[in-house]
Write a structure and sequence with these properties.
The protein is of the alpha+beta class. It has 8 helices and 3 strands.
Length: about 180
């Protein structure tokens, strides 16, 4: 993904109502259940043999290698509680909006006599539901990282720099050199 896509994924994971399975056996059983009982499909997904998957399911192997443990945990988190995640995203898009915390370079056009050089700024800003909905819809439609960043910049431009449209009509905000973005629903 990218910095915005990963942050949206983490925000979705923070909405879980039950803990994600911790043990390797529980994670593997969950993945097998998600693939309608097909250990072969899970083996292909994780890049291990079908027999290895069967051993994890039966708790014959308890400690996976670090690379496999990371892959299993990532696949489980990606598939865990999809309806809870979907409801949280719908609520953010229609009612609550989202909070974006970022440290990035913001460049903008400015009035004559002032500088338009970009500056690093750290912002924590609530974006209203209309911007949250556009960002989430773009992610669902398969938008690129650059497109997601442009939508986030547009929301920050309107809400933070323009004060909801009440000032700086000619302002054009561009996000560059992003250190991090944290998004919460």
């Amino acid at each position: 993904m990218g910095i915005v896509g990963d942050s949206l994924e983490r925000a979705g994971q923070q909405t879980f109502t039950r803990p994600v399975p911790k043990s390797a056996g529980a994670q593997m059983r969950f993945l097998v259940k998600q693939h309608q009982g097909s250990t072969k499909a899970v083996a292909g997904l994780l890049g291990v043999s079908q027999r290895t998957v069967e051993r994890y399911v039966k708790d014959q192997i308890k400690q996976p290698k670090p690379v496999l443990a990371e892959r299993m945990a990532g696949e489980v988190r990606r598939r865990w509680q999809p309806l809870v995640r979907k409801r949280a995203r719908a609520r953010a898009a229609q009612q609550t909006g989202m909070v974006i915390e970022t440290r990035a370079r913001f460049g903008f056009t400015a009035a004559p006599g002032t500088t338009d050089d970009g500056r690093m700024r750290r912002l924590t800003q609530h974006l209203p539901p209309e911007y949250a909905g556009r960002i989430l819809a773009a992610q669902d439609a398969g938008a690129t990282e650059a497109e997601l960043q442009a939508l986030a910049a547009e929301g920050l431009q309107d809400v933070y720099f323009r004060d909801g449209g009440s000032r700086a009509d000619g302002l054009l905000v561009e996000l560059t050199d992003i250190d991090y973005i944290e998004i919460g629903f």
